[in-house]
Amino acid sequence: MPKHTVVTMPGDGIGNQVLPEAIHVLDAVGFEANYVHADIGWECWIKEGNALPERTIELLRQHKVGLFGAITSKPKKEAEAELSPALKGKGHQYFSPIVSMRQIFNLDVCIRPCLSFPGNPLNFIRKKPSGGFEEPGVDAVIFRQNTEGLYAGVEWTNPPETVRQALSLHPKFKPFGKVRGEDLAISVRIITRPAAQSICEAAFQHARKFGYKSVTICEKPNVLRETSGMMEEVAKEVQKRYSDIPLWSTNIDAQTMWLTKNPEDYGVIVASNLFGDVISDAFAGLVGGLGFAASGNIGQEVAVFEPTHGSAPKYAELNPPIVNPIAMILSAAMMLDYIGETEKSLKVRDAIAAVVAEGRVRTYDMLRISGGAKSLAQGAASTTQMTDAILAKLGVRVEAAAG
Ligand code: NAI
Ligand code: MG
Q: Do residue 78 and residue 138 come from a single domain?
């Protein structure tokens, strides 16, 4: 009997293409697991009026570790229009299943490593004052608070009268009080001290464990005085227990400028939900973009690992598939770390590093060409060919894949 059971949630679009590739790689490093499939995503919304069915929540509750591909989500009106006729008008409301999953299991710590692999043509380069270019190595790990902030889901268009009244207690609401209900949209930014403590603590622990030289709190406390103010205050408190690791403080807007100026200076970065989302995508752009961006959503009991990319519908029907499986495979490696299989995760990363360094097998994104069926004829590797190259570095012989 394998020691581990992993709940696999391929979801929509390219999630179905990349998740099986990650499992091939897990097999190749000798990770023995039962994989239990769970439904999630747009089909579930259309047919059941719920993108995260109760049975999937139950499987996660039972098995505790999940691998997730991606889901499709669409704006409110389209979501309503696509709902199956029998479910229309019954009060079903679309919620992002990944956001719901984070909230249900309190997966409050999101880790997004942004590490450049030498030889990746997508790596950030910088012009040197003396002429020529340099390629600073980037190794930043973003700790994003995953359950609160602007993604807490407390929002209205046309807020109820009681909400308007409550908001009127704040003098700054005065000019908005005159706005007609249907012209007024409100999203609430919520930060709680325990969640701020949890994410800051996780960030410092990671910095200490892996030898990062600083932790940066990336917020906007000069304007968002209450919510960002609390995040910064807590970060300072937590830092007192890590006196060997300095705490830097940056504003989210300035940070997005500095990340293309001196990205190599940053180690661990901690931020609230939306800012962490923004800054982790921005850093991912320096190390290869969505094809390389992995993440883990970690709670006290349950953890779910996923590439940060979405379902890329425009490539979902291509056969053979063309998208880069590396982000998903790196997410699986993060899962190995989480369950203590660190030797195996190292092997996975080394195999990816070797394929990238060699430069013979590159998916379309790595070649900076447009995606599409044509990209294979232009020399891009298919999804399977990329996985096969990684498997070959792990000593698995694979027959040449078509396409
Ligand atoms: P996306 O991440 O699906 O795709 C954006 C573009 O990035 C793609 O068109 C493609 O050019 C590139 N890309 C993404 N993954 C790639 C990979 N593995 N290899 C190579 N290129 C890759 O984001 P988009 O187009 O904004 O959203 C599509 C759908 O995905 C939407 O319904 C959106 O709501 C959903 N989404 C879901 C997420 C999740 O499951 N966590 C996250 C982001 C978007
Ligand atoms: Mg994802």
A: no
